[in-house]
Amino acid sequence: MKNILLPLLTLVQKMIKLKGHKQMGFLKMKTNTELLMNALGWEGGTVHQVAKVTGLKVLTILDLDKEKILDTYQLEMYNRGYRWACEGGKENNVPKDSKGYPLFWLGVMDAQKQK
Fold this sequence. Notes:
The protein is an all-alpha fold. It contains six helices and no strands.
C-alpha cells in the first residue's frame, strides 16, 4: 500500500507546484453553503441560517449551481449578485430586493469561487 501512496502523493505535490493550490479544485472544494457563508462574512453556520438571510429554500441553496439564466432580467440579477460580492458585500448590506432570487445568489457564489 505504501508503494502506491508515495507516487500519488508526489504527483499531487508536483501538480500543486505547477498550478498553485487555488486552481486545484479537487484539493479544496467548497459547498454552495460555504461559499455563501463566506460571501456574507461568516466563518461558519448552517444551510438553514443561510436560507434565512438569502430568502432561498434550503434545497435551492444546495442545487444553486444548477440554476440557468434564461433571459436578460435573470442575467441582470446574476450580474448584480456578482458585483455585490466583488465589491465586498456582507450580511449587513444585503440588498433587500435580492432576497429570494436564486440568480442573484448564484452570481454571489460564482464571485466567491473566483476569490
